[in-house]
From TrEMBL:
Belongs to the UPF0102 family. One of its GO terms (molecular function) is nucleic acid binding. This is UPF0102 protein IAC44_02170. It comes from Candidatus Merdimorpha stercoravium. HAMAP family: UPF0102. Signal peptide: none annotated.
């Protein structure tokens, strides 16, 4: 999801955008409950958007949130392709260099299925390595 508001041309926010924001809200709250401190949401750096940057101890975690209303056809996390992984890695590298940080990093995916009948969150820690 882009940090920009997506509308249908008549000023109304699209259902897909609202679903994405809802998924990011659920993911951020989930991370907080798991002991993470959410540092950034919808961070734009180097032309790349990162959904969540969180911290637990000395570990910085870069999180891509994928939200769907159903997982009937495919799991949401399957949408994080190699191109997206490379962009996240580049953004993390830029973020660390700009801030003069040297710490352990991890790349996670949080898959959210949210609809009126259920909210299912799946956290995939270390979903990919920074050497893609």
């Amino acid at each position: 999801m882009s940090g920009q508001r997506r509308d249908k041309g008549d000023g109304e926010v699209s259902l897909a955008y609202r679903l994405g924001v809802r998924g990011e809200d659920l993911a951020a709250e989930y991370l907080r409950r798991q002991g993470y401190r959410v540092l950034e949401r919808r961070l734009r750096i180097g032309g790349i958007e990162i959904d969540i940057v969180a911290q637990r101890g000395d570990l910085l975690v870069w999180v891509e949130v994928k939200t769907r209303s159903t997982d009937l056809f495919a799991a949401p996390q399957q949408a994080v392709d190699v191109k997206k992984q490379r962009r996240m890695i580049a953004a993390a590298d830029l973020y660390l260099r700009e801030r003069g940080l040297s710490c352990e990093v991890r790349f996670d995916i949080i898959s959210v299925v949210a609809n009126p009948s259920r909210e299912d969150i799946r956290h995939i820690e270390g979903a990919f390595l920074p050497f893609v």
